[in-house]
Amino acid sequence: MSPVIPIQAETTMGCTDVAPLVQRGQREVFCGLTGIIWLHRKIQDAFFLVVGSRTCAHLIQSAAGVMIFAEPRFATAIIDERDLAGLADANEELDKVVNQLLARRPEIKLLFLVGSCPSEVIKLDLSRAATRLSAVHSPSVRVLNYSGSGIETTFTQGEDACLASMVPGLPSPTSTAPKELLVVGTLADVVEDQFIRLFKEMGIERVRFFPPRRADDQAPIGPNTRLLLAQPFLGDTARVLQARGATLLQAPFPLGVEGTTAWLQAAAAEFGVSAERFEAAIAAPVARAKASLGRERAHLEGKRIFFFPDSQLEIPLARFLAREMGMTLLEVGTPYLHRQHMAMELAMLPAATFLSEGQDVEKQLDRCRASNPDMVVCGLGLANPLEADGITTKWAIELVFTPIQGYDQAGDLAALFARPLVRRMRLAA
């Protein structure tokens, strides 16, 4: 039985050696607090307490679409004028809010104190506060902190900071512990369940996901841990996991048939899965995915697409759209280009792809309009002006909020891009 060999075909050229246009001007981004929207749904006994302003509260409330009578697992401890003027002890006020919260919500097992621009302005040390509160409320509640400040490069860095803050508390494995796969990055539960079934059918039984669904499901991290990134924006998280001795498996990201297959192959090759067993495990979902992609390709093939930097998902999405949907890439902008994590993605991009890193928004808008794209992927702040110019847009944040990874979501991913084009066509008819 032959072992699985990771995909190598057509991945030796691409854009591996391409120098991107580096921009360091004005940029248009969401803040890292937005990551709470998908993180609070994933870790079911965690709570996210933002230490910030009323603007922070309105942002999260509106982004999550939470009605006033709902009781979500996030809230904002409002910094008001008394705190900013130094008339109140912010730490005493924070302790009071945390005590009230935990008394009202005894199901909380993990509490995140999330920093914001206002908390950083008044130099509130949330790291020290988390240590103090954790000592008071342990062992029933762990208190951690991270920054979701809008000063960060991109809104998805909120998740990266959150997961990185959890790593120091993870246990170490015993010296005799067998090799284990850790899938890193927040995935919808339905996607996680699909991947668990695929790994089991391949014979890979020891699989964990990070972040977990429950706070006490702590994966041991050490030299026996193999990391497989499910999201491309987890640079800090991968770094601290590797510092614990874990090994990062090189793979593209699980978007589309090609990306998902290569992503699964990286794990199969590491765990000694035979080629025959691997092909048998993926045959049915691959067939379903290809059929669903075929229905959308007619709307996308030959269309020209322009990516503004937003989430760090841009390069994997561009690879999927170019290779599987037949779209033409005009410019692929990304907030930050992590060459190690993107190595296989870059190798799979069309060789002539124009890459940009960072942003100078006015200059990029000029390039976008001059290139006359059929579709632009951008943040909400740019979508309305571009739509007013007659350019079809796709909100980048929707690609983070929506389950798009894996075979069974491949058709949904393609449809996210096809629907705006179809709508534009019908309105023009």
Give a verbal description of the structure.
- By secondary structure, the protein is α/β, with parallel strands linked by helices.
- The chain is built from 17 helices and 14 strands.
- The strands form three sheets. A six-stranded parallel sheet has the order 1-12-11-10-13-14, with helices on both faces. A four-stranded parallel sheet has the order 3-2-4-5, with helices on both faces.
- Strand 6 (180-184), helix 8 and strand 7 (207-210) form a beta-alpha-beta unit.
- The protein is globular and about 60 Å long.
- The protein starts with 20 loop residues before the first strand and ends with a helix.
Produce the secondary structure layout.
Blueprint: E1 21-24, H1 36-42, E2 46-52, H2 54-64, E3 74-78, H3 81-84, H4 90-104, E4 110-115, H5 117-121, H6 126-137, E5 142-147, H7 157-166, E6 180-184, H8 189-202, E7 207-210, E8 225-229, H9 235-243, E9 247-248, H10 256-270, H11 275-300, E10 304-307, H12 314-325, E11 328-334, H13 343-348, E12 355-359, H14 361-371, E13 375-378, H15 380-388, E14 393-395, H16 398-401, H17 410-428
Parallel strand pairs: 1-12, 2-3, 2-4, 4-5, 6-7, 6-8, 8-9, 10-11, 10-13, 11-12, 13-14
Helix pairs in contact: 7-9, 8-11, 10-11, 11-17
